[in-house]
Design brief:
The complex is a heterodimer of chains A (100) and B (299).
Chain A: E1 3-7, E2 17-20, E3 24-27, E4 31-34, H1 36-45, E5 48-53, E6 59-65, E7 78-82, E8 96-98
Chain B: E1 2-5, E2 17-18, E3 21-24, E4 27-30, E5 33-35, E6 46-48, E7 52-61, H1 67-72, E8 76-83, E9 85-92, E10 102-108, E11 111-128, E12 131-140, E13 142-144, E14 153-154, E15 164-167, E16 177-185, E17 189-191, E18 203-205, E19 210-218, H2 223-229, E20 233-243, E21 246-261, E22 272-278, E23 288-294
Antiparallel strand pairs in B: 1-2, 1-10, 3-7, 4-7, 5-6, 7-12, 8-9, 9-23, 10-11, 11-12, 11-13, 11-16, 15-20, 16-19, 17-18, 19-22, 20-21, 21-22, 21-23
The chains are: A mainly beta (100), B mainly beta (299).
C-alpha cells in the first residue's frame, strides 16, 4: 500500500525544500509517491523505546515501538493519502516525484 | 525542536516550523512554598504550590528563515515587506510586553514538552568558528504534554566564513575584526496574577534594555583608542550574506566604546584590542536595527 505525499507549506518558498527523517527531501508544492518499504523505514526512523509491562503493570524491560503508519501521523504542511493497493510500489531507495 | 507563533498568548499551537538546535535548557520553574510553621517540628511539614513559569536558553545556528520568528516574539517592531523574497526589518520598541508569543515543542527521548507563551528576553548573535549563531533566553507561561509531532526540517544552509562584511563605521568595511558578539537584553520578567486558571505566568514584561557589542580588532595605532577615550560614537554594521535575498544584518546606530583593552599577553602574541561597545539611541530614538532577508513567508 503506497502513499501519496504532498508538500503544501505556505510559509516556505515555492521551491523551498524540507527534509523528513526516514523519507528524504521534498520540494514545496510537489507530490511524491512513497513506497511501502520507504513508509516502513519512516516508522523505523521515528520509533521510540518504551517501557514493556506485564498484565499486572509490572515492568518487564523496554521495547522498541514503531511510530504510527505514515497516513496516521500529522505533519504540518504535509498531506498524506493512502494509494490503492494495486498501485505498483516505488523502489525503496527514495520517494518518486509525481504529478500534484 | 519545533515552534509556532501563537494566535492567543499562552494557548498551545502545534509546530509550524522546525529548526535544528545546538542545545536548549527550557524548564518549568515553580516557586514552591515549603511549609515551616512552628508546630513541634524542625522539618518541612508540606508544600504549597507557587507561581510557575518557563525559562531557559535555546542555542541554534543563525538561519535567516528562523530568526524572524524569534524577532517577532522579542521587544521589536518587525515590518515585513516584499513578495517571494521577504525583508523583515526589526527595530526596538519601549513596549512593556511583546506583541507575539510562541509555543515551543521539544521532544526529549520521545517525550513531548509543549511550552507556551514564550517570549525572547535576551538574544545574542555570535560568529563561532565562522558560523553565525543565534542564542536566545526565553521566558514563558506554562508547559503541558502534547502529541508527538513529526518534524519537517528546513534545508537552509547556515552562514559561514567568507560571508561577512563588517563595517566600522557603517559603509566602511574593515578586515581586522573578529570575535563578534552582539547582545540585546530586554530584562524579561514573568508577571503573576491571582487567578484560578493555572499557576503559570499571566504574561511576560520587559524592563530596561541594554545593547552591547564585543569584538576583537588588530591593534595598529591609537586612533580607535583615542576615540574610546573621547566617547566618540559611530555606527557599526555586520552584514551576513549568502546572496542579495538571503541576509542577516545588524546595525548599531550609535555605538560608543565602553572598554578598550590592549594588554601585552606574552612573547610572540599578536597584539589585539578587546573592545566592548554600548548601544545608546540615535537622534531617532533607535539603538539598533536587525534586517533579515529570506524566502520564509510568516503571516
Amino acid at each position: 500500500m503506497a502513499f501519496k505525499l504532498t508538500i503544501d507549506m505556505p510559509n516556505l518558498a515555492p521551491d523551498g525544500k524540507v527534509a523528513i527523517m526516514g523519507l528524504g527531501e521534498f520540494q514545496n508544492g510537489k507530490s511524491y509517491e512513497v513506497s511501502d518499504e520507504l513508509a516502513e523505514a519512516f516508522r523505523q526512523a521515528h520509533a521510540t523505546v518504551q517501557d514493556k509491562r506485564g498484565d499486572k503493570g509490572e515492568l518487564l524491560g523496554s521495547e522498541m515501538v514503531l511510530s504510527p503508519p505514515l497516513d496516521e501521523v500529522e505533519m504540518y504542511g504535509v498531506n498524506i493519502e493512502k494509494l490503492a493497493s494495486e498501485k505498483p510500489a516505488t523502489p525503496p531507495a527514495q520517494a518518486k516525484e509525481g504529478n500534484k | 525542536m519545533g515552534f509556532a507563533l501563537e494566535g492567543t498568548p499562552g494557548v498551545y499551537t502545534a509546530p509550524t516550523k522546525y529548526t535544528p538546535i545546538d542545545s536548549e535548557s527550557l524548564k518549568f520553574t515553580q516557586d514552591t512554598t515549603w511549609r515551616r510553621p512552628i508546630r513541634q517540628s524542625a522539618d518541612v511539614i508540606g508544600a504549597v504550590p507557587g507561581n510557575a513559569r518557563i525559562e531557559g536558553d535555546i542555542n541554534m545556528e543563525g538561519l535567516e528563515d528562523v530568526i524572524p520568528y524569534f524577532m517577532m516574539c522579542s521587544r521589536l517592531n518587525v515590518v515585513k515587506t516584499g513578495s517571494t523574497n521577504y525583508t523583515y526589518t526589526a527595530t526596538p520598541t519601549a513596549a512593556a510586553v511583546p506583541t507575539k508569543t510562541m509555543s515551543v515543542t521539544v521532544v526529549r527521548n520521545g517525550v513531548v514538552f509543549g511550552y507556551t507563551g514564550l517570549v525572547v528576553s535576551q538574544y545574542t548573535f555570535t560568529i563561532d568558528d565562522g558560523m553565525l549563531k543565534y542564542n536566545c533566553s526565553m521566558i514563558g507561561q506554562d508547559e503541558a504534554s502534547q502529541s508527538v509531532p513529526v518534524a519537517t526540517w528546513p534545508t537552509t544552509v547556515p552562514f559561514g566564513a567568507g560571508q561577512y562584511n563588517i563595517q566600522i563605521p557603517t559603509a566602511s568595511q574593515v578586515f581586522d575584526a573578529d570575535g563578534f558578539e552582539f547582545q540585546i537584553d530586554d530584562n524579561g520578567e514573568a508577571q503573576y496574577r491571582l487567578k484560578d486558571t493555572g499557576r503559570g505566568a499571566q504574561f511576560i514584561s520587559y524592563g530596561e534594555r541594554s545593547v552591547q557589542l564585543t569584538m576583537e580588532r588588530d591593534f595598529l595605532d591609537r586612533t580607535e583608542y583615542d576615540a574610546f577615550k573621547a566617547l566618540t560614537s559611530q555606527a557599526i554594521t555586520l552584514l551576513c550574506s549568502k546572496g542579495v535575498n538571503n541576509q542577516v544584518s545588524m546595525n548599531m546606530t550609535t555605538a560608543i566604546k565602553d572598554s578598550y583593552e590592549v594588554g601585552l599577553g606574552g612573547q610572540g602574541d599578536l597584539l589585539r584590542a578587546q573592545i566592548t561597545y554600548q548601544g545608546p539611541i540615535n537622534s531617532s530614538g533607535t539603538a539598533f536595527t536587525i534586517v533579515v532577508k529570506t524566502q520564509e513567508n510568516i503571516t
